[in-house]
Amino acid sequence: MQVLEGQTQYQPGGCAELGCSSPPGTFGTTRTGDGLRIVWHYRAANEARTFTVSYRLTGLTVAYDDVVDVNVRLWGDEWEQGLGRLTATVVAQGPVARAWGHPVSVRGDVAIDGNRVVVRALDVPPGSFVEARVLFPREYLSDTSEAVVREGDAFDRIVAEEVGAAEDYERERERLDEAVDDLPRTLLLLALLALVPALAFLWLVHWRFGRELDVGYDREYEQEPPTELEPALVTSLVAQRTTVGSNEFTATLFDLIRRGHYRAEAVTTARSIWGGLRTEDVADLELSRGENLELTAYERAVANVVDGLLPERLSNFRDRIEDDRESNSKRFTKFKESVGAAIDRHDWFANAGLVPLVLAIVVFGVLGVVLWIVGQGRYSSVAPTWSAVALMALGVCSFVNAGVALAGALFVRLWRRRRPPAQLEAARWEAFRRYLTDFPRLHEAPPASLELWERYLVYGIAFGIAERVLQGAHLLMPEAIHQASSIYWISPSGDLGSGPTALGISDLSSGFGSALAPPNSGGSGGGGGFSGGGGGGGGGGGGGAW
């Protein structure tokens, strides 16, 4: 090994550790795994210097019977820096028969001039090597003591290898060009690969784990609440979910009124209209404390919000709740958590289908990462190949499949199944919900008791169809019954009241959802995020040469 600067030859003896210091004009060497590091020392201040580093490699030349094969690495792939231009000259002992440069992913050319081969490469990216392969006749190699000697002829085989590699690369480019030329077909194929595997898996999971069992129930309507299940829980059973919102909160409040925990008096409230130019009287309820009932945890959470407001009219609840939004939002969260705990105690749902879905998400995600990394490692912007692009595209498709599987995991009815007793109860409650939705136009006999009418309204609020119940009550409810009710009353316009105004309980529920939102959720917006809804039904860099 030698290090020179112009005609000045550096002397061995310097240290070879990175960052060490030795006298200028010296160099040192040290082994680094399977390599060798050369470190030279000089003194300079913001100036360009040119050094020549020379070394001798043995065992690189392979001598066959007909040809000598020299395959030399000119630039290593361990460099983290790119190289703008590389020029190398390989001098053989005889006239060069064939020569190639590698890899095809680096732009370059090879020129043969007698026994000299000039290799040029441009814009070598970080982590990419450059090498030259040179063949010359065996008779020109007089000394084989430091070469690898192998028997047999190799010229035709080596040429076939290089030509085959070039042809493989051309075929890769042709396939890539065909995919780009027929872009609609390519996009359709990628869409199928990105969606079909996950969708097929989701169907299998639903068929095996989420499909509801046949419990032999075929009635279209139930005319009374089929069980004593609380209104805060019934929508979760029907919709197969464990979260609730403002509908369930409002239904629980009206259920507490119905049961006498709160006393309600029908009153009228003046409301400004036309920008404050006029006022009108609207139906309202004034709540006060009633009997002390034994409450569940979620009913206590509702009471904790309401008790601090009493006595008060329902039309003022929203503003009063917003006055202490931070505390009341915590109480609303407690309400939802308590309902979720009660649902867990009922053990309605079998959730075995979630396990294969989670595994599918992990498998698709890991496969996508592997395919993307492998494809990225093979990809070159200078010479992209079909295999590299295909691997990266398949990686993206795998990510999409993982996203589809994740969406399926969020759709609980896909993988969650009710246990048989719960499925029968849910089917009956769904029949009751259909009855509440349809009974204003049915000719069947309406309920005769005040208690049943009031339960209709409470469950109608939970299902999000309170206005349908009120419509039926307006048409079918005897006057003597609604005069005795604490939650039905006559508005000044002669209609049955349905909340703080005659406009609808849905307005009241939406107002609760908005007022109970946490302070950082946007203030008095629509409150949609808190609404539980009404529920649904039951059922080497190589590969070619220059």
Low-confidence runs: 498-503, 521-543
Structural Rg: 41 Å
Number of helical regions: 15
N-C termini distance: 30 Å
Helix content: 40-55%
Structural class per helix/strand content? alpha+beta
Net shape? elongated
Major beta sheet summary: 5 strands, mixed
Describe the protein's topology.
Layout: E1 2-5, E2 8-9, E3 11-12, E4 26-32, E5 35-41, E6 52-54, E7 61-63, E8 67-75, E9 83-91, E10 98-102, E11 107-113, E12 116-124, E13 130-137, E14 148-149, H1 155-181, H2 183-210, H3 231-239, H4 246-258, E15 262-273, E16 278-289, H5 297-307, E17 312-313, H6 317-323, H7 325-346, E18 349-350, H8 354-378, H9 386-410, H10 412-415, E19 417-418, H11 420-438, H12 450-463, H13 466-476, H14 479-484, H15 505-515
Parallel strand pairs: 3-4, 7-14
Antiparallel strand pairs: 1-2, 1-6, 4-5, 7-8, 8-13, 9-12, 10-13, 11-12, 15-16, 16-17, 18-19
Helix pairs in contact: 2-9, 3-4, 3-12, 4-5, 4-12, 4-15, 5-7, 6-15, 8-9, 12-13
Question: If you had to describe this structure to a student in words, what would you say it looks like?
Answer:
Residues 498-503 and 521-543 have low confidence and may be disordered. It contains 15 helices and 19 strands. The strands form six sheets. Strands 10-13-8-7-14 form a five-stranded mixed sheet, covered by helices on one side. Strands 2-1-6 form a three-stranded antiparallel sheet, with no helix packed on it. The radius of gyration is 41 Å and the shape is elongated. It is 42% helix and 20% strand. With 546 residues, it is an alpha+beta fold.
